[in-house]
Each structure stands twice: as structure tokens, then as C-alpha cells.
Give the backbone structure.
Amino acid sequence: MNALQAPLIIVLMLVPYILLTLRSLGYLSGLGPNPVETIIHETGLWGIRFLMLTLLVTPIAYYSGIGVIAKLGKPVGLMAFFYVLNHFLSYAMIDQAGDIGVVIIDIIETPYLIVGWGGFLCLFGVASVSFKRLENWFSQNRSTISGLVYTATILGVWHFYWQAKVMDIESVIYSIILTLLIIWRFQVTTNRKL
Amino acid sequence: MLESIYESDKLHLVVMKINKNKISLPSSEITSESAYINRRKLIQSVGLFSLGLGLTESSLGQSQEAQLLKTIRNEKFSTTEAPNSYSDITSYNNFYEFGMKKSDPYMNSGMFEPKPWSVEVSGQVNLTGTFDLEDLIDFNKLEERIYRLRCVEAWSMVVPWVGIPLSSIIKKFEPLSTAKYVSFETVYRPEEMPGQKRRILRWPYKEGLTIQEAMHPLTLMAVGIYGKELLNQNGAPMRLVVPWKYGFKSIKSINKIHFQERQPKTSWNISAPQEYGFYANVNPLVDHPRWSQARERRIGTGLFGAKQPTLPFNGYAEEVADLYSGLDLRKYY
């Protein structure tokens, strides 16, 4: 059962991606009048949602008493990165037509893109390490990884909040959950030290 | 798909037949007859679209009746760029009264009732009072004007509007010399406009122009698109179109017009004054504080369409730049 959980989660988390792919092929309702925007928004939105889910894995394992759940943090986190990577690539390669110079200038000139880019780099660091050295490094540097994922999520939610013309209710909900998670995290680590 | 319908000769004949039966016009008066779309075909395709979204047609604004309008194209003020498809223009809108997503106005505007419609006119004019739509708009003098529309969010469209110059309406009220500005309000009906139930903006939506801007020949009071009455999601029954300004200035579903001496407060300016100025002229050199305004994405160019440069005053500099001579456009954005 344990061995099945990670693949199952990955398949479930791929559903929005499959739906988006079908839409981009013209199925379902299609991508609408602004297809570039739809792809960027959908991949970004699911990236944020799955990052939130990544951070929720530990507290869920903690309070449910089912320790195995904690092992899902890595596959869930990697899937979140998969969406964020698609988000960034669709922005860079489609929206900005792959012009790296234009991308760099656009990021520098656009505050919410700097924030989003920072979050992407945090995740990129974690993901590249987790692909290379795997378990050993992972278990030895849990707090670093956790810290980077937290930072990436904070920057991601900030990026999401900041790009909207008016306050989006979804970003407010994520901000509240994120705040509670950070408080919880600090309490747990403080208790451990004591 | 609609564009191909729009251009097909066969349909053209069908439409002409409809025109003759319903409003029997001498064909010489109809210079923009090709703009009329077969309504049945349209509803069919909309039906397919809504099926994809898992929705019933009755829940959509598209079940609205839109009458054909008699128009004459104003070539002088029309761009030769290809207009966006009717489906793009009626399904991708910013109209926060119906929700914040682009598809919300299309999805949530079915309950809105734009008929009958009256407009309250007040302030520094000789003639004030409440007027019916038909008193304000001379439906025998409708013009079709194909204008570029540039949204502050850096996307753009080309829209074949139907309307009359705002100046022809304003003249009827005989403004006094103290009428330096004109302000407009969108109707406030939270029971028909679900977006108004949340205070994302201060309702009712307010916009304003200087009297010179309002009297400019390009400024249009629109009542239709593609030769048909405006649908609810596009601001039925009448809306402003100021093509050289960002789209949010072109206020929709207007039911109040007020003439005043002082600059009016406007909704987006109240919401975020550092981001949205009173003038809001399209200007590639003055960025929005959070994003660049140098380029725009033209809706309808597909997934791999390149962005295009944004033009000063949205390409209408020759006509309107004079209005702002001596004004620091960086300060008065």
C-alpha cells in the first residue's frame, strides 16, 4: 500500500495538467479568447495550490497520527514544482516568445515577477537537489528544504496576490492558511528545542 | 469559426433576407450589412461552447435577445485592422459588476434587464431631468466605428461599435460654461449584477471626462456591436467608448450623467490612485506601477501570436494629442 501511494498522488495531481492539455488541443471548452493567459494562469494557480498542499502534508501526518503521510511531502512538492516550472516556461517561451533578454528585462521591471522569480529559484534549488542526491541529503537537510519550500510558497502567494487588479479572495484564503502554517511550524520547532 | 460565418457570402444573403423582413431598409443605407451575423448560427455555436463548459444555455447571457440595428459605417474614424470575432468580444470582458473573471460577464449577466432604460442628467446644464434611452440616442443616426480597444491589463481588441458621438447627446442638454467635466455612473442593481454584492470596487462604478474629451468627435456613446444591440456583458444598453484611453474609462450600462466644474472622482482612481489616474490615456512610455505598458497582446492572435507595440494614445495621437498639449503625461497618467 505504501508503495502505491506516491504514484497514485502523482496521477491525481496530473489531472489538471491533462485537462489543460486537452483544452489546448481544442477539447472541452478550449483555452478561450486569450489562450496564453489561460495556460499561464492555470499552471500558476495549480502550482500555488499544490505548494499549499505540500506544506499541509506534515501537519496532516502529525495530527492524523498516520506517519506514512509525511513521506508524501516529496512527491507532492515535486508535482507542485512541475506546475511552477510549466508556469514559468509558458511565460518565458510562449508569452515572451523565448526571448531571454526580454524575459530578464520584464522580470526586473515588474515587481510581482521578481517575487515570483525568487519563489521559482527556491523551488528549483530544492527540486534539483532532490533529483540528484535523493534520500541522504534530504534526510540530513530537512529544515533547509522545509525553509526553502516555505519561502517559495510565501513568495508564490505574494506573486499571485500582487498581479491581480483587485484583491482576489483565493489569495486571501491562502495567505491566512499560510500564516497559520508558519505559526504552527514555529511552535513545533520551539517545542522540540525545549 | 464565427469570423468565417461572418464573411461567408451565403450567410450574407441569409442576413440580407432577415434585414428585409424585419426592418426593411433600402440596401443603400446599409453600408455595414456584412456585420450582421445570423443569430441562429451564433446561438448554435454558443450552445456548443456552453456545452463544453458544462452549462445550460439558459444560464448564460447569450440567451438575450439582441435586435439588429440600422447603421452607417464611419470609414473616416474606423481602423482597417480586422475586428475580433463576435464570440471573443462577447466572452472576454472586464465588467466587475458581473464578477472578476473574464468569462464572468458572459456567464453571469443573463439576469440583467436593460429594457426599459432611463438616464438621469444633472448638474451644470440648461436641460436636466430623466430621459429615456430613445430620447438620448437617435437610432436613425447610428454609426458603425471600428476602434482599437486597449485594456490597462496589456491586452487589446478591435471592436466594430455602433453608436453616436457623445457630443451630439451633450449638445442637447446645453452645458453651461461652468461644466468643465462630465461624470458617468453605471447602474447599481446588486440583485441583477452579482459582482456588486462584494465591495471589490466602490459601487456604483463612476467614470469621468473633461468636457473637451467628452465633446471630441472620437468619443462614442455605443449601443451596439457588430450591427446588433449591445449584450449585457458589453454594457447594455448604452456605454461610453473612448478609444485612446484604457478600457476602464469606457464605462458601461450608464444611467447617470452629471456636469460639474470640479474633476470627478472615478472608481479605479479611488481604488488605487497611484495605479489608475483620471486621464488614463494609453501611453507605452508610462508603465503601470506593477507591469509594463510598452506592448500588448491582441486577443484572437492565438497561442503563438506575438505581442505588438502599444501606440501613444492607442494610435489616435493625431486626433487627440492636442487635447493634452502642455500637460505632463507622466504626472497626469
Q: What stands out?
A: Residues 1-61 of chain B have pLDDT under 50 and may be disordered. The longest helix of chain B spans residues 9-22.
